[in-house]
Amino acid sequence: MKSIYKIIFVSLIFMGLMTSCFDKFLEEDVYDFLSPNNFYKTEADAEAAVNAIYSRLVSSEDNDISFHRAALMIGEYPAECSSAQTSTVPYRLAFEFYTWTPNTDGIELVWKFFYQVVFRTNVAIENIPNISGDPVKIKRLEGEARFLRGLAYLYLIRLFDNVPLTTASEQNDQNLPNMGTSDAVFKQIIEDLTFAESALPDSYNGNNVGRATKGAAQAFLAKTYLTMAGYPWNKTENYALAATKCEDIIKSGNYELDSNYAMNFKEAGEHNKEYIFDAEFQQNLNGSNWVNMSSIRDQNVCGMAGWSSFGGTMNFYEDMLKNNPGDKRLATNIILSFIDTKTGEEKVWGKDFDVNKGLVHTWKYIDPEETGVGDQNSNLNYHFTRYADVLLMHSEAVNNANGFNGSYDKYYGINRVRERAGLDALANLDKEAFNKALIWERVVELCYEGHLWYDYKRMNCMEERVARKGVDIGTNKKYYVYPIPVNELSRNPNLEQHPLWK
User: Fold this and answer.
1) Residue 198 host element (H or E)
2) Which of 20-34, 50-64, 87-101, 349-363 reaches the highest mean pLDDT?
3) Residue 82: in which H helix or E strand, if any?
4) Is the pLDDT of residue 51 over 50?
């Protein structure tokens, strides 16, 4: 699918016409090259519209923000394993140290961005079904748009708890309320992802690889049910639904763990059997800057010096050594050594770089075998979810469900993940002990991939987890939710601040 960005000029034009529908709400620039009425004529038009939405997963119209970036930073900087390191950007530091407020500008960027995606999918969903053409392809394209809308709303409700719900392009969204909407928002997410599940294929060939699939829809349905079952909604009947949806993925036979954990973070391993859904980057067109963000300052890891603005903590390194001796993931999660691409010499952490600085870096966004990497120009994708995430969701759901009688027990998923890491299988754990083991497994398996703040919230364990990096958030649950940005409250008189942030 990376090649669809070669038609980015079409996508940008279409993004402009979508934007023009909502300029008052979002205060965006108005391009107004086309209108939906005269654009949606052919299958090619519909495909260009959907491609334009996909492009927003990786592209940025605002300074320092895009869909994947928003999802990753706001979900990962607060994690026990993560640090903004040498960054001086205020909102990154606020996310890391739990000092954010309604005035934190990074939160406003996230809110604005996710709603841009919602509005653009609304336009596509309204117009695509009216196009004449191959009904299977038309339904598939609508399914892709619905998948992306469901994805955006899932992030919004997990972040803010109470958000405005809009599904029509012509609504006066500036005046929509947010309180009391959570049931309707979850219902819409489930409807969108269920439609996508029925409309999308198991896989694609050629240039279409990278589009949303049936398995991707099922994975985010499982995540939606798991979210509803956990804190703060506590609708525990949804654990069984989450487990069932995970088992649909497992039984499909379409996915498998890569035998080498590190391959998930190399260009050669993209779209392997573990892949489910990514933000697709293409070098020299929309390359990723996570190689800059996470690489080592003043060192030549990938032919350039990094920024040391996204990485790990010493506590996480020490916890992995203490709790997971022999874990094969350590050398991927943390850069222990590298070959200097300019001198050819091996450099060792703590000896040749980051001496006395205590900075921990990760390989997850750096592929030393990737060629042509320049400033902010990496080809490496960002994983929204992969099969290991599904296996761990299944274990969590089965452990917490009441009387679930599925095909796999609660140990199946977590022990598959541990086996790949070279660790012993778990057994004979009660519910509470299993949940503690499960959240740690998610930390070491999915660190730096944007999951962990959402996991801490859902599993109601944020205080304990972030204490591991020396952050004390007390007993107030305010950091289990992000506040409505103050500027959004000013624009929309019907928005109410979250009770924990009043």
Assistant:
1) helix 182-199
2) 87-101
3) strand 82-83
4) yes
Distance CA 424, CA 29 (A): 55
d(CA 358, CA 368): 22
- CB count within 10 Å of CB 11 equals 21
- pLDDT at position 317 is 92
Mean pLDDT of 148-172: 92
Tell me, yes or no, if the pTM score tops 0.85: yes
How many whole angstroms separate alpha carbon 315 and alpha carbon 81? 7
Contacts of 366 (CB under 8 A, 6+ apart): 291, 294, 295, 301, 302, 335, 378, 380
Question: Using only C-alpha atoms, what is the Rg of the chain?
Answer: 22
Compute φ and ψ for 329, nearest 5 degrees: -75, -15
Q: Give the pLDDT of residue 17.
A: 46
For β-strands 346-348 and 337-339, DSSP reports them as antiparallel
Mean pLDDT of 425-433: 98
3-state secondary structure of 311: strand
The span from the first CA to the last CA of the chain, in angstroms, equals 44
- Show the 3-state SS of 270-284: CCCCCEEEEECCCCC
Tokens representing 482 are: 């992000």
CATH number 1.25.40.390 given to 2-200+483-501: yes
Residue 190's nearest CA partner among 243, 143, 239, 150 is 150
Cis peptide before 232 (omega within 30 of 0): yes
Query: What does the pLDDT average to over 228-240?
Result: 98
Residue 262's φ and ψ, nearest 5 degrees, are: -65, -25
List of residues 6+ apart from 274 with CB closer than 8 A: 255, 256, 257, 258, 264, 386, 387, 388
Decide: residue 187, CB within 10 A, 0-12 exposed, 13-18 middle, 19+ buried. Answer: exposed
At 109-136, the pLDDT tens digits run 899 889 989 999 999 999 999 998 999 9
Residue located via tokens 């708890």: 161
Total residues belonging to the chain? 502
16-43: average pLDDT = 50
More confident residue, 159 or 287: 159
Rounded CA gap, 139 and 132, in Å? Answer: 11
Written as six digits, the tokens of 154 are 């899932």
